[in-house]
Structures are given as C-alpha cells and as structure tokens.
Amino acid sequence: MFLKNAWYVAAWSDEIKDELQQVKVLGEKICMFRNSEGEVIAMEDACPHRKLPLSKGRIKDDNVECGYHGLTFDCAGQCVWAPGGGRIPSAAKVRPYPVHEKYGLVWIWMGNAAIADPEDIIDIPNFDNPEWGINRGAAMELNCNYLLMCDNLLDPTHVAWVHESSFAAAATKDTPLRVTKTDTGVIVHRWMMDHEPAPFYKKVVEFEGNCDRLQHYEVRYPSHALIRAVFTPAGTGGVDGTLHEKTFVMDSYNFMTPTTETETRYYWFQLRNIRPDDEELSKMMSEDVRGAFEEDRAVLNEVQIGMTEKTSPHIDLHIDAGQLRFRRQLEAMIAEEAMVDAKMSQ
Length: 346
Description:
The structure is a single chain. This protein has two domains: about 5-120, 3-layer Sandwich (Rieske Iron-sulfur Protein); about 125-330, Naphthalene 1,2-dioxygenase Alpha Subunit, Chain A, domain 1 (Alpha-Beta Complex). By secondary structure, it is α+β, with helices and mostly antiparallel strands. It is about 20% helix and about 30% strand. It has helices at about 145-150, 160, 200, 280-310, 320-345; strands at about 5-10, 20-25, 30-35, 40-45, 60, 65, 70-75, 80, 100, 105-110, 135, 140, 180, 185-195, 210-220, 225-235, 250-260, 265-270.
C-alpha cells in the first residue's frame, strides 16, 4: 500500500504549535505538538484505554493527558499515570514517531524507528543560498491517490492542455521525452529549442526574444518531486549548450503525503536564481503557481473518480513510460519491505 521506511512531510513547521492537533499520514492518525523546548513530538493519536484521540486531551508538563480518564503519556509514548491506583498496565503506551525539522517542514518517519536517519531526507541545494529567492503556499488537499500526483509530476506533456494560460507552449505538445531511471527515482526531461517563453515564465525571465527551455520532471521514492525549469536565450541551451548569464532557473519542490488511499496532502515551494529579495515577485509566483496547481487538482480529483468507477480498462501511452517505471520500482520496494517485516514478526 505505502512505503513506510521513508521520510514524509507531516506539516509546515509553523503549523505545529504548543497545542495538540491530529495529523494523518499513510492512513494513521498522529497526535503532534511542540513541547516546552520547542521540539516537535509525534505519537499515535489513540489512548489505549478506549481509543479517544489524544489530540482531544491536553498538555500537562510536556506530557499528554487523555481527555476521557486522564491517562497520561510522556513524549516517548509511555503511560506515566493512570486512574484507580495500582500498577500501570504494560500495554498502556502509544507509538512514538521519529520527526525532524528541515527546510521549514516537519518530516515524519512512519516505519522502523531504529533505521530513521535524518540524513536520508532529500537534499535541496540553494535552500539557504541568499542569492536565490523562494516562494511557497499553503498545503493543498487532493481527493486522489498520491501516485496520481506522482504521475502528473513525471508528465511534462500535460502542461499543453491543463496549463494553457501558464506553463504551456507549442513545443510542449510534441517534443519527444527522455526517460532516465536513477537510484532514487525517475527523471523525464526534454529540451525545447527556439520558441516563445510560456506565459508564466515570460513575466519573470530577464531576456528578450525566444528561448531554449528545459523541462526536468523528477520524482524520487516514495513521493518527492523536483521540477526544474530552465529558460535561456535561444541558441544557448540544449544538452551541449553554454547557458547565458541571464538564464532563468526555477526549482519547484513538491512533496506528496498520502493521508488515505484516495486522499493526499500536497506541499510545495519554488527556488529561483533571480531577484531573491523581490517580495512582489515571490507573491506573484506563489499566486500563479497555486492557480496552476488548482488546475492539476481539478483534473486529478476527476481522474481518481474515473479510475475508481471505471467500467472498462484504462490504457497507457508512450508518454507514460516514466510514470510506469516509477510505479513498478516503488511497488517492488513496498513488496520487499513487507516481506522483511513479515520475517521479523515471525
């Protein structure tokens, strides 16, 4: 179903306060809050007594008190007080989850806590580079399986029809794609030479005339995407090109967190190599990108309904090669993980 031994985004850092709240990841309900030291704490959101969500309780001296009968749990998930006197039952505990804050995001590890290593969180070059600007938006709720968005982010061709007013250009319809499988995921990419910049990018590039454009669509296991857009004056791009000093680069990072089989929480931000302190540019980019992602959401929500209710088989096209490779490898990773877990439980 899901790959559990991996880091997923649970929230933006500024979403987690010193109050209890429920976050859902991989179909599991998690109680999250900040302790008095400002550290993010995550634990199973169900008191073992009668399963009232702990997020419905209260924080008491960095412990979590159940709102039904007062069972109290420390940050490691161990019950430290129960009503009625006597010995606290050995089963009075909840599962804690490893968490780590990086890039303004709270990351959570849903699998074997013993192998959770923050060094395995995706590396994002230029995140703290003062010469690069950043824009972001609120997380989006998608009514579709997370793999449909992964498919979307391995599909440069869809922009020609879904994003006509923003990312589309004539060359996005028929320029051939190249697919590259890596150790961490799949890349679908192509250079489109000597054409007019797409409407969104025309507003931000700092050169006149036609461009050479790179679409680099990359999704890494289990569900993290880098969409790199490169716009350089015509004649300076391509595999063997020498990029111009006014080349525009935008790295869009996208993190799909499965909440259920048919629901996904989508986090995103963009890094750009121009005008890092231009707040108006950041605002415009956030608004326009959000508008484009709303177009994706409308399509994918309907695709989920169509795939769920289909009465005839769906087909694949040549342009789906990257998506199919990604799904096959992720499926194999999930199956291998399940096999290991089964052996360990014997």
